[in-house]
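Customer ticket, subject: "Can you confirm the structure for Diguanylate cyclase?"

Message body: Hello, I'm evaluating your service for our small team and ran a test protein. I'd like someone to confirm that this is what the system normally returns, since I don't have a reference to compare against.
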Amino acid sequence: MLVGSYNPLFVVLSVLVAILASYTALDMAARVSVADSRRSAALWLLAGSGAMGAGIWSMHFIGMLAFRLPIPVGYDLWLTLQSLLVAIASALFALWLVSRPTLPHLRLALGALLMGIGIACMHYLGMTALRMHPQIEYDRFWFALSIVIAVAASWSALFIAFRLRASDHPLPARLAAAIVLGLAIVGMHYTGMAAAHFAEGSVCAAAGTGGLPTEWLAAFVVVVSVAVIGVTLLVSLLEQRTRSRLLHLRNSMLAASLDDARKELFHANLHDPLTGLPNRQRALERIDQQIASARDAGHSLAVLSLDLDELRQINGAFGHHVGDTVLVGVSERLRQLMCAGDLVARLGGDQFVIATPIEDEPAARRLAERVITAINTLRVGGRDMRVTCSIGVALLSADTEAGQSLVSLSEIAMRHAQQAGRNIHAVYAEWMKGSVEQDIRLLADLRSAIGTPQLLLHYQPRIHANSGRVGGAEALLRWRHPEHGLIPCERVIRLAEQHDLMEPLGQWVLNEACRQMRSWQDAGHQDWRISVNLSSRQLGSGQLLGQVRQILEHNGLHPSRLILEISESVVMHDADTTSTSLRALAALGIGISIDDFGTGYSSLLQLKRLPATELKIDRAFILAVEESDEDVVIISAIIALGHALNMDVVAEGIETQGQRTYIERLGCDYLQGNQLGQPVSAESFMRLHGGVALPAVDHSEP
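Agent reply: Thanks for trying us out. I re-ran your input and got the following:
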């Protein structure tokens, strides 16, 4: 038997090639598993199987070259190429198997068996490429052991490659696994070599019949193995670096996006999405900070709560998109009006809040008036729209604990401003809290105020639509409390009605209005008329008729100069009783006006039974007359109805020139509203309107 020997250098080289091939296999498994497309995965699978197969094949032939026989040796070219193809096919199968999402034990075992057989086939095909005569004999034990080692090595390779295919495993773990796999593959090869027995006198037929010389095979194997494995690992390294850079760039972009998203989320959590102003939560935080700064600096702080008076009517008349535009326009006006360090926030709905350092209460009042003026006219959708608001002002005091309490006080003042009338402001006072004790004190003060200069009447002009001249006025009650300032009329009426004070208060108002009307009549305004509102309690009193007759006689005023206004809802509450009382008043020659007409539920039959001489259209219809065809139709119908029943028709709440133009063209008889004249004292009324005719509007243009 021929006895061979091993070249230690080639043995070491085979081990290194086996380890390098194993590392390549592990790296390729990772590349295939993380590929972001099927095409990319297929390319890595093919490249990896070629590199891995060539590596295992190179290890095998370097190991065979390490084996020296005392005869010339060569290798059959075709069988050598077949062994290379088997190695590549085995590697392709292995990489495909470990790239699957799962690798159950049965699939792992079958895969290891097929791969082990493939590697063994490669080895023994390579041995057959020697074309020995006589043929090589194999020891059954060592032959079987080599197969077992090949299957075991394949099982280990598949298992480790599947477990380490994630690309985030560190280099030492992969290198250690590659060493284990490389030694297993080398062990299979040298076990197979140990199984081979060469008979004495054997001849290598491939050495002299066109086979590959060992020198050429050695050079070919080394070049192929180094080139294929080296190029594959280089490409993998470059791809990994590129992926790492892309991942770093993506992470950086993602971090920046997350940071932007966090900032946007933080901003959205503390700001109103429509106007971009701080919301209630942020506003309270800012006011707390301003309170601390104000106390440190020793100055005061004013908080203004602002509520738009008729946003609901705007939404109903023009749509919510117009209402949203109004809110945005108001927010912009407030931003422009206030300084950079001041707070402008939207608390929700139609309510805004302003917080700013202030000198004193007069300065706060001046600021509130500037705010009212600033938002009175907005440009919305190419048209001017009048916007009114009610403002409550609260000033920082020594017992103010936090921004929430200051805002609450300003909201209380705002509600009182709303009760007192639109487009005004009110500064918070203690009595506004409305406790029972405060109501009792205020009621006592009201009893004492009747007949004193604390109570006074303001007068708003009623204008003839055709001529533009003043035709009289509506008397409106005001109470200027010496301690609390102007008390809203609605609060005065509520106190009076709840405590049976309405009759003396109403009697005083009626007498004062008639006295003033007599004074104007003596001044030459014989055609003027005065209108006075009656409450439900006055109307239900059995003494009303006698009081009215006595007041008219006392002031020497003809009944035709007096108009008594009753709201439509009061008339409909008890139509029969109301009708009886109104007929008695009308019999004196007094004018009867149905106020807020269109908001109640009066029928034509009930209206016909009433001795009314005048219908007063509710201001809600006037607000949208320029844009709402429906409101134009309603107003036209009311005017036609009034004229059909021989009644004058009055439009109240005219705020713009456009509204006035529309109403006059529709045939209304009298006009009333802030655009024509605001409620003022009797002296101011005479100075503004006595002897001066307001110009009529030219209706020649359509």
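A couple of notes from the result: The first helix runs from residue 8 to 34. The chain has three domains: 5-244, 280-433, 439-690. Feel free to reply with more questions.
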